[in-house]
């Protein structure tokens, strides 16, 4: 079922423009855009400081990134979400709450190289990305060989990808792909809420629903190494 377009979407997006670092696609061909278009963000201008930068791919309504930004006021956060309908909710909440260390990119993840400088991000968060189990859709998985080189380029040496999912099949696939693309994998748990990492965990909306149904949450950290 397609999500119904929010009323007055464009005027409301305009009201949030101070938080919107990028929107749309520079051309229809995503591969061509990622390879040829550059409008790299200047973080010091965007945030007004030199604090480290972390990024969430697929921020949804923003619950995770809001809590993360509250816990870490001296870190800047970029939240990526392709759906304007969804990112609008996150941006309006951000404005209402006066959150100053989050900015948004309303773009497909494929064109992150157009905006994110190489070696500039400390951490990337992948929270409950769609598993897309069909073989024909493998390239669309956010931990496929299509996306991991993009993340690797954006990360600093020693930078981390933190993944959470409810799908064990997708989790095992991701662990394999991380290693294939030169990441060291650690902090692996197949039942996050009963692990040593539970106390620092930020429970997302999806995660709460899955956990209440008795479903285990899978988590791992992949570290960029030379």
């Amino acid at each position: 079922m397609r999500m119904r377009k929010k009323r007055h979407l464009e005027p409301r997006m305009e009201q949030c423009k101070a938080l919107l670092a990028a929107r749309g696609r520079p051309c229809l061909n995503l591969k061509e855009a990622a390879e040829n278009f550059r409008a790299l963000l200047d973080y010091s201008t965007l945030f007004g400081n030199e604090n480290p930068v972390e990024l969430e791919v697929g921020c949804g309504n923003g619950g995770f990134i809001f809590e993360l930004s509250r816990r870490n006021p001296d870190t800047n956060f970029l939240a990526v979400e392709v759906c304007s309908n969804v990112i609008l909710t996150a941006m309006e909440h951000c404005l209402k709450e006066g959150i100053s260390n989050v900015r948004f990119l309303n773009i497909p993840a494929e064109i992150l190289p157009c905006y994110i400088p190489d070696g500039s991000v400390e951490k990337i968060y992948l929270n409950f990305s769609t598993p897309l189990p069909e073989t024909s859709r493998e390239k669309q998985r956010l931990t496929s060989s299509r996306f991991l080189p993009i993340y690797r380029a954006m990360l600093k040496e020693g930078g981390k990808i933190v993944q959470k999912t409810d799908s064990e099949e997708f989790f095992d696939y991701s662990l394999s792909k991380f290693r294939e693309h030169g990441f060291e994998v650690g902090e692996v748990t197949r039942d996050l809420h009963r692990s040593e990492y539970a106390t620092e965990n930020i429970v997302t909306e999806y995660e709460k629903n899955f956990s209440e149904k008795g479903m285990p949450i899978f988590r791992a950290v992949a570290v960029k190494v030379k």
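The mean pLDDT is 95. Residues 21-224 form a domain with the Rossmann fold fold (CATH 3.40.50.150).
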